[in-house]
C-alpha cells in the first residue's frame, strides 16, 4: 500500500527533523527548503504554481463545500510531495471549526461529507488533534445506523463515491470499525448496481443518464484509489473494489484522445480539451502503476500523454488550471479560461502520483 506513501512520510520526516517542528506545525509552516526543487522536478514546480494561483485568485474560498474541499485535498498533496506550504488549509479548517456542511432534508448528502477527506488529511499527516475528526465521526456514525436500518441509496450520483467513500474507508480502518466498513460496502453496492455498466466498464452519472461522463468516471476511479490505499490486503471487501478499478482502467486507457485528454463525454468522438476528468483519470492510472496494480508497459504511455496535455495546454505559465468544465452534474464543454477549485484539486492529485513516476522527482537520499 502507498498510504500515505514513502514520499509523504519522507517529506514530513525531513521537515520535522530539519526544522525541529512538531508534526502539527508542518501544515502551517513551510520547510526551510523544498524537498524537491523545481530544477529537479517540473511536476513539483507546476503543482506549487497551481496551488498558489488558486489561493490568490479563486472565488468563494471560505466554505467547507465540495469545491473547496477537493482543492484542499490537492493542496495538502502539494505539501506531501514538495514540502512547500501556502499556509491555507489549516486556517480554512479552523475557520470552519472542522464542521461538515448540512443540507435541510438531506442529512447524509455526499457533497456535504467531502470536507471529511480534507480534515482526515490534516489529522493524519500534519495535526493529529482529535477535535478535527469529531463532527465527521459523528456524521458517519449516524449514517451507519441509517444504512443498517436498510437505507442504502444515499450515493445516487457517481460523484458521491469520491465525496463520501474515502472517509468511510479511512474512519473504518482507523477506528477498526466493521460497521463503518460494512455500511460503505452496502452503499457502494447500491450505487454499483444502479450506475455501473459491466460492459463497457464505466459508470453512468445517475439513474437518468445514458452516457459516460469523464469527470464522473474520474471521481469513481479516484474514490476506488483512496479506498484501496487504506484497506488491508486481506480485507474481504477489497477484491471487488480492485476488480472494478482494473476494469475501468482498461476501458479508460483505450478511450484516451490522441492529444492526451479524455473527452468530457467519453464515448463521443469529438469535443475539446477538458482537464478535470483528465486529471482524475490520470491520478487513478498513475496510482495504479505506482502501486503495482497496473502494468506500467501498457498504462504509463497514456499517463505521460495525459500529463503532457495537462501541463502544457491546460495550465498557464502562471499556474491557472484551465479547461475545467463549469457544468458539474454531467458532460459539458470547457474553455481555456474556465477554472474551479475541484479542477485545481484534481490536477494537484494527478501531480502527486505523476511525480512518483517522473525521473528527477525522487527525493534526495537522507543524510
Automatic annotation (TrEMBL):
Keyword terms of this UniProt record: Hydrolase, Signal
InterPro entries for the chain: 6-hairpin_glycosidase_sf, 6hp_glycosidase-like_sf, Glyco_hydro_88, PolySaccharide_Degr_Enz
Protein name: Glycoside hydrolase family 88 protein
GO molecular function: hydrolase activity
Residues of the signal peptide: 1-29
Entry superkingdom: Bacteria
Any Pfam family matching the protein: Glyco_hydro_88
Chain coiled-coil ranges: none
Amino acid at each position: 500500500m502507498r498510504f500515505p506513501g514513502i514520499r509523504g512520510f519522507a517529506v514530513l520526516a525531513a521537515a520535522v527533523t530539519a526544522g525541529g517542528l512538531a508534526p502539527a506545525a508542518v501544515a502551517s509552516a513551510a520547510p526551510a527548503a523544498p524537498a524537491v526543487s523545481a530544477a529537479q522536478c517540473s511536476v513539483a514546480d507546476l503543482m506549487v504554481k497551481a496551488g498558489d494561483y488558486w489561493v490568490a485568485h479563486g472565488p468563494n474560498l471560505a466554505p467547507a463545500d465540495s469545491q473547496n474541499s477537493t482543492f484542499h485535498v490537492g493542496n495538502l498533496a502539494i505539501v506531501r510531495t514538495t514540502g512547500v506550504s501556502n499556509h491555507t488549509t489549516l486556517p480554512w479548517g479552523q475557520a470552519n471549526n472542522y464542521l461538515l456542511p448540512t443540507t435541510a432534508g438531506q442529512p447524509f448528502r455526499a457533497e456535504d461529507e467531502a470536507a471529511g477527506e480534507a480534515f482526515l488529511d490534516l489529522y493524519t499527516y500534519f495535526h493529529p488533534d482529535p477535535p478535527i475528526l469529531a463532527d465527521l465521526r459523528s456524521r458517519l456514525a449516524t449514517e451507519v445506523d441509517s444504512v443498517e436500518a436498510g437505507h442504502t441509496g444515499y450515493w445516487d450520483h457517481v460523484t458521491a463515491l469520491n465525496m463520501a467513500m474515502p472517509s468511510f474507508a479511512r474512519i473504518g480502518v482507523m477506528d477498526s470499525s466493521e460497521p463503518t466498513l460494512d455500511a460503505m460496502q452496502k452503499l457502494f453496492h447500491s450505487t454499483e448496481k444502479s450506475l455501473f455498466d459491466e460492459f463497457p466498464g464505466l459508470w453512468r452519472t445517475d439513474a437518468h443518464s445514458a452516457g459516460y461522463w469523464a469527470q464522473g468516471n474520474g471521481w469513481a476511479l479516484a474514490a476506488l484509489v483512496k479506498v484501496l490505499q487504506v484497506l488491508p490486503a486481506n480485507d474481504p471487501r477489497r477484491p471487488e473494489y480492485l476488480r472494478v478499478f482494473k476494469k475501468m482502467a482498461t476501458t479508460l486507457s483505450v478511450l484516451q484522445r490522441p492529444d492526451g485528454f479524455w473527452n468530457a463525454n467519453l464515448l463521443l468522438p469529438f469535443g475539446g480539451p477538458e482537464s478535470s476528468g483528465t486529471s482524475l483519470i490520470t491520478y487513478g492510472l498513475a496510482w495504479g502503476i505506482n502501486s503495482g496494480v497496473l502494468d506500467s508497459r501498457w498504462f504509463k504511455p497514456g499517463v505521460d500523454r495525459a500529463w503532457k496535455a495537462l501541463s502544457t495546454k491546460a495550465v498557464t505559465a502562471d499556474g491557472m488550471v484551465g479547461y475545467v468544465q463549469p457544468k458539474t452534474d454531467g458532460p459539458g464543454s470547457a474553455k481555456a479560461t474556465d477554472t474551479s477549485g475541484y479542477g485545481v484539486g484534481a490536477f494537484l492529485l494527478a501531480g502527486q502520483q505523476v511525480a512518483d513516476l517522473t525521473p528527477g522527482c525522487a527525493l534526495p537520499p537522507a543524510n
